[in-house]
Design brief:
Blueprint: E1 7-12, H1 19-29, E2 34-36, H2 55-60, E3 63-64, H3 77-91, E4 97-101, H4 105-112, H5 123-136, H6 138-148, H7 150-155, H8 161-174, E5 192-199, H9 202-218, H10 221-228, H11 243-249, H12 255-278, E6 284-288, H13 293-307
Parallel strand pairs: 1-4, 1-5, 2-3, 2-4, 5-6
C-alpha cells in the first residue's frame, strides 16, 4: 500500500479523556509530529491549570503551538489558522502524516476546514453590548443568546463575555443567528483529514475531570494562580481553573468553594465539547478511551487502504 500523502489525523474528545497520551503514542509509531489545537495551552505563563504536556511527554514527540506566546499578546483563531497552515506545509515536506490534538473545537475546525465568514459588525453594536454587560451583567446577555441562538448557546463558552458578545453582535448586526453562518464552503487545504475521537460514559469523564483538578491543586495550581493574579483582567486568564482561584484570592469565597467551582465549570466545558463533537459525528471514528493502541493503529491503516 502506498502511503497517503499529506494526511492530518485529528485526535478529538472531551477534556481529561487521554488525547495527549494517545497522540504521543501514535506520533511515535508513525514517526511524526504533533500540532496542538488546545487554545488554553498556547500561553507560556499558564502551565498547571491548562494541563500542558509534561517535560517527558514533550520530549517523547515533537509538539508545535505549546506555550508559544505570552498572555500579553493578542492571538486569534484566525492567526492560529494561518500559523498552523504554514507549519503544516513545512511538516508535510518531511512527513506523510501529522497529528493534531485538542479539545478546542473551533481551533480544530479552523485548521481542517478554515474559518467561516461573518457579516461586518458596527462598532456601536459592540459598545452597546459591552455597556449592557457592565450595567445588567453577563446573565442578561446569556438569556438573550439562548433565546435567539440556542445552538451557539449550547456550543460556546457562555461564561466568557467576549464569546457571548461576539455571537450577539453578529445577530444584532444581521438579524441572523451566529450559528447560521457556520458550515459554509470549506477552504481548499493541502491535506486530507482523518478524525479519531475518544469517548467514555459521562460519569467516567466527570470522574476523570475531578481527579485531574485534585492533581492540579496538589501540583501547585494555587501558587501558579497567585503569580498570575496581577494579570487577572487579561482575556487569556478568563478561563476555568484560574478565574475561580482569582475569585478566592479576592476574598469572595473559600478555597474549597473555588476548587468545587473549577470542577463544576470544567464539567460544563466538557459537556459543551461533547455537544460540539456530536455535531461532527459523521466525520469522526469513535473509540472507547480504553481501546488498545494496536486497534486504533489498525483502524487508521484500514481507512488508508480504503482511501487508496
Amino acid at each position: 500500500m502506498r502511503p497517503i500523502k499529506n494526511q492530518l489525523i485529528c485526535i478529538l474528545g472531551p477534556t481529561a479523556i487521554g488525547k495527549t497520551a494517545l497522540a504521543i503514542q501514535l506520533a511515535k509509531h508513525f514517526e511524526t509530529e504533533i500540532i496542538s489545537a488546545d487554545s488554553r495551552q498556547f500561553f507560556k505563563e499558564m502551565n498547571i491549570g491548562t494541563a500542558v504536556p509534561s517535560t517527558e511527554e514533550l520530549a517523547a514527540a515533537q509538539h508545535h503551538f505549546i506555550q508559544h506566546i505570552s498572555i500579553e499578546e493578542q492571538y486569534s483563531v484566525g492567526k492560529f489558522e494561518q500559523d498552523a497552515d504554514k507549519k503544516l506545509k513545512l511538516l508535510f515536506k518531511q512527513q506523510d502524516k501529522v497529528f493534531l490534538v485538542g479539545g478546542s473545537g473551533l481551533y480544530v475546525k479552523a485548521v481542517t476546514e478554515g474559518l467561516d465568514e461573518f457579516p461586518k459588525v458596527n462598532e456601536e453594536i459592540r459598545e452597546k453590548l459591552n455597556q449592557e454587560l457592565k450595567e445588567k451583567g453577563l446573565a442578561h446577555l446569556q438569556v438573550e443568546l439562548k433565546k435567539v441562538d440556542l445552538q451557539t448557546y449550547n456550543s460556546i463558552a457562555v461564561d466568557n463575555p467576549k464569546r457571548v458578545i461576539r455571537a450577539l453582535s453578529v445577530y444584532r448586526a444581521s438579524g441572523k443567528a451566529y450559528s447560521s453562518f457556520l458550515g459554509q464552503k470549506k477552504k481548499d487545504k493541502n491535506f486530507t483529514t482523518l478524525k479519531i475521537g475518544l469517548s467514555a460514559q459521562r460519569e467516567i469523564i466527570y470522574s476523570r475531570i475531578e481527579q485531574r483538578v485534585d492533581i492540579m491543586m496538589e501540583n501547585g495550581l494555587l501558587d501558579e494562580a497567585k503569580k498570575l493574579f496581577p494579570h487577572r483582567n487579561l482575556n487569556a486568564l478568563n478561563t476555568v481553573g484560574y478565574k475561580e482561584l482569582f475569585n478566592y484570592l479576592e476574598g469572595n469565597c473559600t478555597l474549597v468553594e473555588a476548587v468545587s467551582e473549577i470542577k463544576k465549570n470544567t464539567r460544563r466545558f466538557a459537556k459543551r465539547q461533547l455537544t460540539w463533537f456530536k455535531n461532527q459525528e459523521e466525520d469522526v471514528i469513535w473509540f472507547d478511551y480504553q481501546t488498545p493502541l494496536e486497534t486504533i493503529i489498525q483502524q487508521i491503516e484500514v481507512k488508508n487502504t480504503q482511501a487508496n
